[in-house]
Amino acid sequence: MTSSVGDESFIDFLERHPLTWERLLNVLPDGVAFVDDTGIIRHANAVFTTLTGYELADLVGRSIEDIVPPSARARHVEQRRRFVDGGRVRTMGRHLNLSLLRRDGSELAVDIALAPIVLGGRPWTITLVRDDSAERSASRARDEIEQRFRLAFEENMAPMAFTDLDDRCIAVNDAFCAMVGRTREELLTGDSSLFTHPEDLGITESVQQRLIAGDVERVRYIKRYVKPDGRVIVVEISKSTARDEHGGILYFVNSERDITDELELADQLAHQALHDPLTGLANRALFDDRLTQAFERVDRYGGFGAVLLIDLDDFKGINDTRGHVTGDELLSAVAGRMQSVTRASDTLCRFGGDEFLYLAEGLSSDEEAQQVAVRLLGVFDEAFAMSGTVVEQRASIGVVTFDAGKVDRETLVRDADVALYEAKRDGKNRYVVFTPTMHHRAASHFELARELRHALATDELAMHYQPIVELSTMTVVGFEALMRWRHPSRGSVSPSVFIPLAEESGLIVELGAFALREAIATAATWASHGPYLTVNLSARQFHDPDLVATIERELKSSGFAPDRLIIEVTESATLSDVAETLGVIERLTHLGIGIALDDFGTGYSSLHYLTLVHPRIIKIDQSFVSPVHDDPRTRTLLETIVTLGQKLDVEVLAEGIETDDQLEHLRRLGCDLGQGFLFSPAVSAAEVPAMAERRFGP
Ligand code: C2E
Ligand code: MG
Ligand code: MG
């Protein structure tokens, strides 16, 4: 049914009632223009004049093309003709980006709808125009935002991916592609199993469940990916959801980070904190930890464990004579060999210096602990070849076992140390299993070492001086400096007890320096041209690179003449490293300092040692002078040594003269010098001047 007004058709009605038209046109929100079949604007409403900027009178009679932007004009003529020849109602939407040319030359974004209408028998067109500029700039803004987001996604340095509920990638950025080492096509067509570590495939599922349930807005988790070359990387993922307006999940937003290097660094730091940098073995901290665990295990499940304390024999010598580089190299080699015989369940640790600890677990008998020791000692059978040199290195081991009853770390390591000490005492290159009877002996040993350290820092140590008497004149010609330790509770501790202790612990270097400093400073106060001073030096001190400089410095600062100083050396010093010791002796001799061979006759190569060192004095050990059993062979030896000295033109000194008989005998033999309780024991520095003046009878 066609619309009508009464009997009249609606169009006819409109034609006859122009006022109705006018009212209609003026309430419309859009611009309306009537254009005839030749393209001339015949009428327009107020909105249309506002949009175009023309007065109505100015508009009517103009070609519609006048308000078409020049660039679109030619096409417009063409299109308008086609429309007039049979057009239907049509709209020309936003996507065409239409605009009209305003009177002031500016262009206005518009939306246009056309409707054919026959007026006065001619095919006219009604043109409806709507201002689209607001809408269009809003859409442009939307585009821009979208563009910005796309850029933020595409160009983001952080790997990002949008994934669907099946964990397939919907979108990935370049950084993501680079991280997993795949092309965008591969990623968008495959699913995440393409690059996810097989063991981590289930992770995403559970994470997504939590997000879907809405418990959390974002989940951070860690997952491993496998790159095409097989390299595994660890990735931290921050996953959140994009939802539609009803709260349904559209996709997941994943922002990811390759944390492989970070973890590696963290690992390295952790490793560093628990390992010895030189050998790569566990350090004390890690060992302590393992030991605690081992204690827990024996406590819970029973069984045995053992701690073995391994100490390289005479390693200090290597370090001192061949340098620290070789020393370090040797330590690494030793560590490597021991590691190679370390069971997977056991722990080998560098305890410090040349000491190692071995923790053996799951043992069923003491014998097994000993087998471990034998295995460890075995690695020292072969010499160690290192850059240029071959080094024979042995070790001693202290073994202590533990079970559920005995689980105290402190005592355990100390007991191992006690056993180690026994092993060293028994001749090194062996192991000793701790027994409680060792304890008493060792406890005092450790105590003493600790206290000696303390003594050095306080004034418990002092030098005393024993006169050296010229037997022909019976006058005092020199003094031997001997160290004294006045222990606050033990009283006077003998140097024959604490000197070996200091040698073992390395404390001897400090102790020796103290002796030199103290004795030289004291002797410098003696009358010029007065008695000479002898000072004992331990073998270890010859490896002290500062030794000669220290002596020189003390002589200079005190003003004591070098030729009044005599260094006492025992045979053991020359044996530990002949070349080095002789080098030091030569430098001392060069300074004018004399050498005395101490305890002569007690070592097994005394004569050989006499050919190496050219001493000023030979000190015959007191075992020849005041023998416990007076036997003829000892007497012969004493005579021989005195004669030897005379032949070599070296002064001979008899140590430990206790009786007049001994003195007489020595004088008869022509022994030059004597020392002993018969004359005087060592006296304090204050007593020296008086002592120096004494003449001993007869
Ligand atoms: P040494 O160098 O052979 O010193 C001689 C030791 O014999 C001293 O013992 C001395 O007191 C003792 N003595 C002296 N006359 C007699 C005697 O008539 N009868 C007996 N039975 N003994 C006598 P001391 O002072 O106990 O020193 C023992 C050892 O300790 C020394 O033997 C020396 O090797 C070492 N020593 C002492 N002071 C020092 C030092 O400052 N540095 C170093 N490296 N070693 C030292
Ligand atoms: Mg001596
Ligand atoms: Mg001696």
Q: What's this entry about, in short?
A:
The chain is built from 25 helices and 30 strands.
Topology:
Blueprint: E1 4-5, E2 8-9, H1 10-16, H2 18-27, E3 31-35, E4 41-44, H3 46-52, H4 56-59, H5 70-84, E5 90-92, E6 99-101, E7 107-119, E8 122-131, H6 133-154, E9 160-163, E10 169-172, H7 174-180, H8 184-189, H9 203-213, E11 218-226, E12 232-243, E13 249-258, H10 260-274, H11 284-301, E14 304-312, H12 315-340, E15 347-352, E16 355-363, H13 366-378, E17 384-386, E18 389-391, E19 395-402, H14 409-425, E20 431-433, H15 436-457, E21 461-470, E22 475-487, E23 491-493, H16 495-505, H17 508-523, E24 532-536, H18 547-558, E25 565-569, H19 571-576, H20 578-590, E26 594-600, H21 606-612, E27 617-620, H22 622-625, H23 632-648, E28 651-654, H24 660-669, E29 673-674, E30 683-684, H25 688-692
Parallel strand pairs: 19-20, 22-24, 24-25, 25-26, 26-27, 27-28, 28-29
Antiparallel strand pairs: 1-2, 3-4, 3-8, 5-7, 6-7, 7-8, 9-10, 9-13, 11-12, 12-13, 14-16, 14-19, 15-16, 17-18, 21-22, 21-29, 21-30, 22-23
Helix pairs in contact: 14-15, 15-16, 17-18
Report on this model:
This protein is of the alpha+beta class and 698 residues long. The longest helix is centred in the middle third of the chain and has 26 residues, at 315-340. The chain has 25 helices and 30 strands. It folds into four domains: 3-137, PAS domain (Beta-Lactamase); 156-263, Beta-Lactamase, CATH 3.30.450.20; 275-435, Alpha-Beta Plaits (2-Layer Sandwich); 460-692, Alpha-Beta Barrel (TIM Barrel), CATH 3.20.20. One magnesium ion is lined by residues 480, 536, 568, 598.
